[in-house]
Amino acid sequence: MRRFSILVGDITHSDAEAIVNAANTTLLGGSGVDGAIHRAAGPRLLEACRSLGGCETGQARLTPGYDLPAKYVLHTPGPIWQGGGQNEAALLASCYRSCLSLAAEHGIRTVDFSSISTGVYGYPLHQAAAVALRAIMDFLADHDLPQQVRLVCHTEKTAAVYRQTWNLWYAGNKAERL
Question: Which ranges constitute the DSSP H helices of 10-155?
Answer without folding.
Answer: 32-41, 43-52, 88-105, 125-142
